[in-house]
């Protein structure tokens, strides 16, 4: 037998393009964005170089840029005034709350040109920073929290969200939100379920981005990073509850979970390249230690290769405008 030569298919850029197995296109990328109350200019986020907290106006402009670049969607997070936070996170469901104002503004600006998604969670709005309401002993009360998520999701649908994204990992949240939306005339609003969401150190920069007040951790509701099988279990439950799309989060360090979920899911699969994954690339690039464009592109390609149909990434605009 003569030498078998796989290198033949790597000889030229055209050949490599021809045989490429995974292609990333702008339409499958979702840009997460932060909209903050009470500021009159965009505020940089120190731990996420290049990412800002938007005013409602600068958010409108960002949405237009994203639509023009062919990005598939936006995921909105709200950053309320400290004085609007309370134990129940009630400013999340107020029509005038910052997230709902942001959703309205974006829909007004881009209509249906982008898929507009909302983070359906309480942590941005609670004084204690947890993703839910606390019981008398200070534990996150699952069922009371789910009731609050339903009100939050309906308020977000009212404000124009095409998709709600429950990210709090409460049991039964997808089922309850589905029936809440159906009963209020929002049968067409989709649910992107954060199905397998891990208690990750890679959310660190995000806590600065949303001005989180959290002390302690989220390990009684988010999953243990050591558990692979459980990621599949959580996903199957969300599918049974009616999730329209399921998500794995974080992405890069959970590609095994992502591959499992992609193999088992009969709905589109998303993965979230989170703030810490972004920050590691951006910080190393600032020092000249890594090529940010190449690393971002390789990272997102790997996430798609592992099975994601949709990628939430802070690099979405950069990646989309580069092609
Ligand atoms: C919860 C939420 C978090 C992120 C998205 N939704 C934070 C958390 O669970 O602690 C993290 C996103 C990121 O790190 O980029 N509302």
Automatic annotation (TrEMBL):
Biological processes, Gene Ontology terms: protoporphyrinogen IX biosynthetic process
A GO cellular-component term linked to this record: cytosol
Pathway the protein acts in: Porphyrin-containing compound metabolism; protoporphyrin-IX biosynthesis; coproporphyrinogen-III from 5-aminolevulinate: step 1/4
Domain of life the protein comes from: Bacteria
Keywords noted in UniProt: Heme biosynthesis, Lyase, Magnesium, Metal-binding, Porphyrin biosynthesis
Enzyme Commission (EC) number: 4.2.1.24
Binding-site residues for 5-aminolevulinate 2, renumbered to this chain: 275, 314
Positions bound to Mg(2+): 234
Positions annotated as active site in the UniProt record: 197 (schiff-base intermediate with substrate), 249 (schiff-base intermediate with substrate)
GO molecular function, one term: zinc ion binding
InterPro entries (alphabetical): ALAD, ALAD_AS, Aldolase_TIM
Gene3D superfamilies with a match to the protein in the record: Aldolase class I
Reactions that this protein is recorded to catalyse: 2 5-aminolevulinate = porphobilinogen + 2 H2O + H(+)
UniProt keyword Magnesium, yes or no: yes
Pfam families: ALAD (PF00490)
Residue sites binding 5-aminolevulinate 1 per the record: 207, 218
Subunit structure: Homooctamer.
Role summary: Catalyzes an early step in the biosynthesis of tetrapyrroles. Binds two molecules of 5-aminolevulinate per subunit, each at a distinct site, and catalyzes their condensation to form porphobilinogen.
PANTHER family recorded: DELTA-AMINOLEVULINIC ACID DEHYDRATASE
Family from the record: Belongs to the ALAD family.
Name recorded for this polypeptide: Delta-aminolevulinic acid dehydratase
Lineage, uppermost ranks: Bacteria, Bacillati, Actinomycetota, Actinomycetes, Propionibacteriales
């Amino acid at each position: 037998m003569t030498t078998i030569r796989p290198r033949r298919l790597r000889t030229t850029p055209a050949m490599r393009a021809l045989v490429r197995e995974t292609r990333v296109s702008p339409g499958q990328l979702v840009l997460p964005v932060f909209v903050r109350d009470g500021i009159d200019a965009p505020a940089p986020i120190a731990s996420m170089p290049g990412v800002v907290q938007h005013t409602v106006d600068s958010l409108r402009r960002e949405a237009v840029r994203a639509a023009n670049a062919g990005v598939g969607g936006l995921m909105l997070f709200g950053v309320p005034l400290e004085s609007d936070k309370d134990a129940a996170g009630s400013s999340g469901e107020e029509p005038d709350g910052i997230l709902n104002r942001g959703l309205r503004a974006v829909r007004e600006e881009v209509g249906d040109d982008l898929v507009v998604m909302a983070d359906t969670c309480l942590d941005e709005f609670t004084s204690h920073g947890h993703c839910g309401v606390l019981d008398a002993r200070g534990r996150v009360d699952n069922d009371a929290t789910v009731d609050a998520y339903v009100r939050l999701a309906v308020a977000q649908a009212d404000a124009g969200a095409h998709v709600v994204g429950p990210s709090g990992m409460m049991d039964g949240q997808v089922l309850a939100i589905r029936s809440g939306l159906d009963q209020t005339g929002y049968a067409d609003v989709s649910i992107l379920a954060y199905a397998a969401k891990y208690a990750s150190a890679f959310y660190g920069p995000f806590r600065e981005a949303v001005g989180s007040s959290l002390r302690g951790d989220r390990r009684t509701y988010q999953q243990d990073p050591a558990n692979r099988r459980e990621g599949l279990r959580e996903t199957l439950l969300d599918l049974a509850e009616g999730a329209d799309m399921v998500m794995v989060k974080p992405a890069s360090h959970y590609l095994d979970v992502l591959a499992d979920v992609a193999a088992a899911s009969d709905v589109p699969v998303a993965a979230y390249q989170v703030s810490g994954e972004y920050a590691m690339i951006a910080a190393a690039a600032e020092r000249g230690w890594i090529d940010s464009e190449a690393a971002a592109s390789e990272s997102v390609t790997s996430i798609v290769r592992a099975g994601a149909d949709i990628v939430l990434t802070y690099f979405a605009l950069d990646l989309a405008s580069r092609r």
